[in-house]
């Protein structure tokens, strides 16, 4: 029997509300529903960050080339401040953000701890700050980079971790962690990746530094490396310093993914790309383009990829997908007129095949034919049968919702 990690449990599933009666149970997808309270408003409060950095309960998620440090393929390892002291000086947050910007020196480089949030389920022995208590969790990129000195210190941290039998877990997509750890890793991976790929200002082209506890990159106004007569020389003017600019904030790219029902509601439209293993089909997906609503993007993608014209589109649930920075917005859609169901793969040759499957066949595949891309389904699977993505993928949740009609609310789900 193939086993998959549990997707997160919705926190509000037992609450009887008008919305749940009307639209059915809430679905929360893998990589979402982090156990951490992000406390985003404290990211500029350096006294808080300084206390969190050095607190004995504080835990660090370490990544090297985006691979997380683990005890096993199913469990993250949380390092202590002592483990990373060589890379992160204890006074890292002692200067204010303004002072950090003024002290910018392009000759120096340093690792930057990313504040991920407070784990409020671990209050005991945790940090208390104002009304908030829990265990602070930071993400830290230990990939050797920057100055030679910084690279040597990163090497020390890595060697000490590996000497304890821990490994940086390499996987195309991590789908073996518990729901909570998957969400923590997703946040860490997305922020490390974004910081790594945005070391130069998108407006003026000069180097940037990480601020707001790893969630913003700023273009410093001066550089001590270019000082004249003891004073730092101003860097070229850059309007990221004077206007509100999104250039220096992490990016999230929205994509749509959709389970499409036929006009009679008895069939579901699935497609496959050439890179999928034989008989493996999934829901259709694509990027939302500028000035498109979610519903517009769903209708466009389904028409472009399969030639099918949709009528109603409803948003079902969403999934952060940190590879590298997507938000998958899941929808369920239906064709209004059987004449609009004809499949045409000629517009955009992205799919190798798209097909209408009977609900009964899809239900059977959800029981026996589910596998991660490239893995084998369980022993009950019969060769040649339909294969579908695992529950950790929103595609699986959308297909389940469409075939069980449970997005229609408690009264209609049994129809
Ligand atoms: Zn700039």
TrEMBL record:
GO CC term (a single one): cytosol
Catalytic activities: a 5'-end NAD(+)-phospho-ribonucleoside in mRNA + H2O = a 5'-end phospho-adenosine-phospho-ribonucleoside in mRNA + beta-nicotinamide D-ribonucleotide + 2 H(+)
InterPro entries: NAD-cap_RNA_hydrolase_NudC, NADH_PPase-like_N, NudC-like_C, NUDIX_hydrolase-like_dom_sf, NUDIX_hydrolase_CS, NUDIX_hydrolase_dom, Znr_NADH_PPase
Source taxon at top rank: Eukaryota
Cofactor(s) listed: Mg(2+); Zn(2+)
One of the record's GO molecular function terms: metal ion binding
Domain Nudix hydrolase: 250-386
Entries under Gene3D superfamilies matching the protein: 3.90.79.20, Nucleoside Triphosphate Pyrophosphohydrolase (3.90.79.10)
GO biological process: NAD+ catabolic process; NAD-cap decapping; NADP+ catabolic process
Keyword Zinc included in the entry's annotation: no
Family: Belongs to the Nudix hydrolase family. NudC subfamily.
Protein's recorded name: NAD(+) diphosphatase
Organism: Penicilliopsis zonata CBS 506.65
């Amino acid at each position: 029997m193939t086993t998959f990690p549990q997707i997160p449990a919705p926190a509000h599933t037992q609450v009887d509300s008008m919305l749940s009666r009307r639209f059915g149970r809430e679905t929360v997808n893998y990589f979402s529903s982090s156990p951490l309270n992000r406390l985003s408003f404290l990211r500029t409060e350096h006294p808080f960050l300084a206390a969190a950095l050095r607190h004995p309960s504080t835990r660090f998620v370490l990544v090297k080339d985006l691979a997380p440090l683990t005890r096993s393929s199913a469990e993250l390892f949380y390092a202590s401040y002592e483990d990373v002291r060589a890379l992160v000086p204890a006074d890292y947050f002692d200067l204010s953000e303004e002072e950090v910007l003024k002290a910018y020196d392009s000759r120096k480089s340093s690792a930057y701890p990313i504040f991920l949030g407070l784990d409020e389920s671990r209050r005991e022995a945790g940090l208390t700050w104002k009304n908030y208590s829990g265990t602070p969790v930071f993400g830290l990129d230990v990939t050797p980079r920057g100055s030679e000195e910084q690279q040597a210190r990163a090497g020390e941290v890595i060697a000490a971790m590996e000497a304890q039998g821990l490994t940086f877990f390499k996987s195309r997509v991590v789908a073996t962690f518990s729901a909570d750890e998957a969400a923590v890793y997703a946040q860490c991976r997305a922020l490390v990746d974004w910081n790594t790929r945005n070391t130069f200002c998108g407006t003026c082209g000069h180097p940037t530094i990480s601020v707001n506890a790893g969630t913003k990159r700023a273009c410093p106004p001066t550089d001590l490396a270019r000082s004249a007569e003891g004073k730092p020389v101003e860097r070229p003017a850059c309007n990221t310093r004077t206007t509100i600019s999104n250039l220096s904030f992490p990016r999230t790219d929205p994509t749509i993914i959709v389970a499409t029902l036929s006009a009679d509601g008895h069939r579901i439209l699935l497609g496959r790309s050439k890179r999928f293993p034989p008989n493996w089909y999934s829901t259709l997906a694509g990027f939302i383009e500028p000035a498109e609503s979610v519903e517009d993007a769903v209708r466009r993608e389904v028409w472009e990829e399969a030639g099918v014209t949709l009528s109603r589109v409803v948003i079902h649930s969403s999934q952060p997908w940190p590879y590298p920075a997507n938000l998958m917005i899941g929808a369920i859609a239906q064709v209004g007129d059987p004449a609009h169901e004809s499949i045409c793969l000629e517009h955009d040759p992205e799919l190798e095949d798209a097909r209408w499957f009977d609900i009964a066949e899809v239900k059977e595949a959800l029981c026996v034919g589910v596998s991660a891309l490239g893995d084998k389904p369980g022993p009950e699977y019969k060769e040649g049968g339909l294969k579908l993505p695992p529950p950790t993928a929103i595609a699986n949740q959308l297909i389940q919702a469409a075939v069980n009609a449970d997005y229609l609310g408690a009264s209609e789900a049994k129809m």
